[in-house]
Every structure is written in C-alpha cells, then in structure tokens.
Amino acid sequence: MRVIVIGASHAGIGFVDAMRRNGFDGELVLIDSLVGQPLERPPLSKAFLCADGEDDGRFALRKADWFADNRIELIDGCRVAAIHPDARQIETASGEHMSYDRLVLAIGATPRRLPAAAHMSGVFELRHPDDAAGLRAAAADASSAIVIGGGYIGLEVAATLVKSGKDVTVIEAAPRLLARVASPAISSFFAGLHADAGTKVITDAGVEDIAADHGGFSHVTLSDGRQLLADMLVVGIGVTPETALAEKAGIETGNGILVDSDMQTSMAGIYAIGDGALQRDSAYGIRIESVHNAQDSAERAAATINGHAPPAVQAPWFWSEQFGLRLQSAGIVPAAADDLVCLRRPGKRADGFSIWSFRGGELCAVEAVGDPAGYMLGKACLEKGLSPTHDSVTDAAFDMKAFVAAK
Ligand SMILES: Cc1cc2nc3c(=O)[nH]c(=O)nc-3n(C[C@H](O)[C@H](O)[C@H](O)COP(=O)(O)OP(=O)(O)OC[C@H]3O[C@@H](n4cnc5c(N)ncnc54)[C@H](O)[C@@H]3O)c2cc1C
Known about the structure:
This protein is of the alpha/beta class. Helices cover 26% and strands 29% of the residues. It has helices spanning 10-21, 47-50, 64-69, 129-140, 152-163, 184-197, 244-248, 291-306, 372-384, 390-394, 400-406, and strands at residues 2-6, 27-31, 72-75, 80-84, 89-92, 97-99, 102-105, 109-111, 123-124, 144-148, 167-171, 200-202, 207-213, 216-222, 227-229, 232-235, 239-241, 253-254, 256-259, 270-272, 277-279, 317-322, 325-331, 340-346, 353-359, 362-369. The two termini are 44 Å apart.
C-alpha cells in the first residue's frame, strides 16, 4: 500500500512516524512545497529569532537520516496542485501524477494578510522557517518594530525583539491581549509582563492605514489618527486553514477540511490532520491550532488506517514562552461567555500560579504560568471530567493531587 502525505510539518511528520510505530510496512511518501529539512514551528517566534542562523538544523523536526532510516521518501520543494480522487492520484505543480492508496492532507494554514501592506518590503508574517529567517535578518538592522496582533505569536515575537533591545509597539484590535485564546487574568498577566519589559501595547486600536516610503514600510496610522513609525512591521493576526486543494477535489470543507473523529474526510481514502482539519463532532466546535493537536490527529489517522484502536482522548494543550516565563494551558477558554468564572490558584513556587476557568459550573480550562504541577493537575481534572469546587481551587492548602487520585 502507498500512502502519500501532503505537508511535512508537525502533523505530516507526526503521521508518518506513527505509521511506522504502528508497524505499517508499505510505502510512505511525504511531500512539501518548502525547500529543505522540515523545521519545528514553535521556536520560529522564540529561540530561532535570536539564533545566529549558522545552525538552524538544531530546530529540525527529525534528523536528516531519520527519513531514510524509516523508509520515508521526503520530496521537498514540490507543491501539490490538484487531487484526482476518482483516479486516486495527486498532481504536482509541475504536472507530475502520483498514485496513492491513501492520501493524508497535512497542509496546515496560511497567515491572514493585510491588503494595505501587500507588496511592501519590511513587512513580515510568520508561519514557516523562511518567514522567520527573513524577519530575523531584518531585525538585525532594525531598532524599532510594530507588531499588529496581540495573540500568542505576536506577543512572542514582541518579547523576543524587546529582549534584543528593539523598541516594540504591539497593536491589538480587541480590548485586551490574547482575547480569543486566554482568560482575562492571563491577558492582564501578559500585559503587565510586557509593560514591565518596555513593550508598548495599544489595545482597542483600529488600523486605518499602512504606509510605505519608496516601497518599504514606513508607518501605521491608527483609526484615532495616531501615526506610529518603525523600521519594520510584523503582522500576526491569525490564520486561515488551507482548504482550496480539498475543495477543488470535491471534499467537504468549512472553516477547515471537515473530518470525522477518525480524521476521515468526506472522500473515501482521504484523511486530513493538523491545523487545517476541523472535526465535525468536536466537543469544542473550533479548529485547534497547536503542536499537540497536530500530533494527536496524526496518531488518530494512523490508527484508523492501520485498523488499530484510537489513542485515548486528551484535553487539548498548548504552551507559550515570553521573557523566560512558560505558560502551559489545557482545555479551551471560550472566547466569549457570560457565565465564565476564572479563579486563581497559587502555585508551588512563589511566582507561579494557575487560572482555573469554569463555564456553567464545569471546569473548561486551566492556564498555568511557572507552575507545571498546577498545569498537570488541571489537565488531569479535565481529562477525568472533574470539577473541583471554587473554594478548593483558591485554597492553596487543598490537596488537588489527592482529589484527582481519588476519582
Ligand atoms: C511562529 C509559530 C509559533 C508557534 N508556537 C507554538 C507553541 O508555542 N505551542 C504550540 O502548541 N503551537 C505553536 N504553534 C502552532 C503549531 O506550530 C502549529 O499548530 C503546527 O505547525 C501545525 O502543524 P501542521 O502540520 O498542521 O501545519 P503547518 O505547520 O502549517 O504545515 C503545513 C505544511 O504543509 C505544506 N503545504 C501546504 N500546502 C501544500 C501543497 N499544496 N503542496 C505541498 N505542501 C503543502 C506547507 O508548506 C507546510 O510545510 C506555533 C506556530 C507558529 C507559526
């Protein structure tokens, strides 16, 4: 059997790895439009940006010989232009046809762009290693930067640039940072952390115009008329899932390529995983963009194709690092919910803490800063369907470990 995987990032590589671990002995072909060794994405807004560029291989998702050792044919620099489900073939941009028995779409998502900044030099998005290398090179010569978007990626880039001595302004349209993904308490915590480090943060701010000088970025005009000048602009305003390839092939899509809990699309023999896939029956009702989801969906698709039992369901988890502090979160904080209750639990270390969010009385997310134990216990509660009382969450003396173990 020949399985072709389009996309050699976290989901695609996680999938071929899981296939071999499941004992699959057939052909595995991994295709990606990017050139070179596949690299991890999370460091692109963190360590990669301050690395010297001599040894980017240390960010590799797998060592170069891992592919040959596992009999995985990696075809880089090759864009898949079409899928022909009736013939069970894919077609590359150069017109080559390749046959598959099973096809896995691990094609991720594309950054949202601001039309006003199109074709301007000095404007950067951040998704793939080449984007990060371009940003890193420009930052070396810049003394100031504007970041549009106060989500995790925007804030991580801002933190990295501030740490390297740049004058950084973050512009966020929502009334608070991380509004779509974090509890209000975590938003305030990161706003304070950035303010202390010298990042200028402007929330509730509309961007009226982005202007260039001789084709290069010069300034942003806010809707209140303020003009902000900087040497470079980073746009981190979220992503849209890559659905065009699937749609053209007649596969059902929505805000992602629609899959069932086995990662099977509406087309027989074709699966979708990672950031680009949306589970129809997901308890969360949204696409999840994280390394954990890429890995988990990859394991699920591999189990399905090999006829194995699916892996146990885990609470979705995510991490971020800014100014040397690590946030770990499990579960999903609803973007807007009137009945959301967020409680702070002190951590073991003096500066560590976790925020436990309840919706309709049920625990829905735990976000921990510098508190790995709080994170692990919160995640265990979510996975066991446990909701500790509000008093026990805020009481540092309450034995949460025993509470989890007893259930
Ligand atoms: C800067 C940054 C920081 C992040 N930090 C964190 C973090 O701290 N923690 C965390 O959990 N998550 C983080 N994430 C999110 C995480 O990296 C993504 O969830 C993960 O990369 C998703 O993997 P994926 O394989 O689904 O998609 P992607 O990583 O988007 O990969 C898709 C691949 O498919 C290829 N492709 C697409 N279309 C085609 C085609 N037609 N033909 C051939 N190839 C194609 C692309 O070239 C790409 O390599 C971060 C992401 C970024 C960008």
